[in-house]
């Protein structure tokens, strides 16, 4: 592999799940992946817990911002190799045209911001999403991406999510 693969994580608000995906993909891959994130209706802020988790990973916080997915649909935007939706809402929306025709998949996770009744539960919800994303990205990194064609990669991306959901008895 000469160039790192670019991966875009999408959700609606782009304040938690997709930003965690961006930070995890970049930090876990040691240069194999460059993570990006965006939302269909960005909240214009990054959730404070997301920032704390990204800081723990050593991800540069100045790179994190909530942004619209339209930034990545322009012809002059960086061409993504993979686009992964991380919330069911964004997966059901009509996405922009993606230059370069990237491989797409859906890895749906609960919204940690909506899954908590107190501060401890909020942290637990964020940590759960972080762990689930981490597991999937680590499996992605185990793939011989430079030896697979687009259809094989698409199948592997879907398989990773379904296998882990079955393993942890998560609904899809």
Account of the 3D structure:
This protein is α/β, with parallel strands linked by helices and 172 residues long. The protein has a single domain (5-167), classed as 3-Layer(aba) Sandwich (Rossmann fold). The chain contains five helices and four strands; from the N terminus they run βαβαβαβαα. It has helices spanning 17-29, 48-57, 88-91, 119-142, 150-167, and strands at 5-11, 33-39, 82-85, 103-106. Helix 1 (17-29) links the parallel strand 1 and strand 2 (33-39). The model has no long low-confidence stretch (mean pLDDT 90).
CATH architecture: 3-Layer(aba) Sandwich
**Sheet having the most strands:** 4 strands, parallel
CATH superfamily: Response regulator
Instruction: Give the strand content.
Output: 5-15%
Total of DSSP H or I helical runs spanning 4+ residues = 5
State the strand order across the main sheet: 2-1-3-4
Total beta strand runs: 4
- Find the CATH topology: Rossmann fold
Query: Regions with pLDDT < 50 over 5+ consecutive residues?
Result: none
The domain count comes to 1
What is the top-level CATH class? Alpha Beta
Mean pLDDT, to the nearest integer, reads: 90
Gyration radius from CA atoms, angstroms: 15 Å
SSE succession: EHEHEHEHH
Oligomeric description of these chains: single chain
Distance between the termini: 33 Å
How much helix, percentage-wise, in residues? 40-55%
What global shape is seen?
globular
Structural class: alpha/beta
């Amino acid at each position: 592999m000469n160039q790192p693969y670019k991966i875009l994580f999408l959700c609606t608000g782009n304040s938690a799940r997709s930003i965690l995906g961006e930070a995890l993909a970049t930090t876990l891959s040691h240069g194999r992946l460059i993570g990006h994130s965006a939302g269909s209706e960005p909240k214009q802020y990054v959730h404070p817990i997301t920032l704390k988790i990204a800081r723990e990973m050593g991800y540069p916080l100045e790179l994190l911002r909530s942004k619209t997915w339209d930034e990545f649909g322009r012809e002059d935007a960086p061409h993504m190799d993979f686009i992964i939706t991380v919330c069911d809402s964004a997966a059901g929306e009509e996405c922009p045209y993606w230059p370069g025709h990237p491989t797409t998949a859906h890895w749906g996770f609960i919204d940690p911001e909506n899954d908590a009744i107190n501060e401890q539960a909020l942290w637990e919800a964020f940590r759960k999403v972080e762990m689930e994303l981490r597991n999937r990205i680590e499996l992605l990194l185990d793939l011989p991406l430079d030896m697979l064609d687009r259809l094989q990669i698409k199948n592997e991306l879907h398989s990773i999510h379904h296998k882990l959901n079955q393993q942890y008895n998560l609904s899809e």
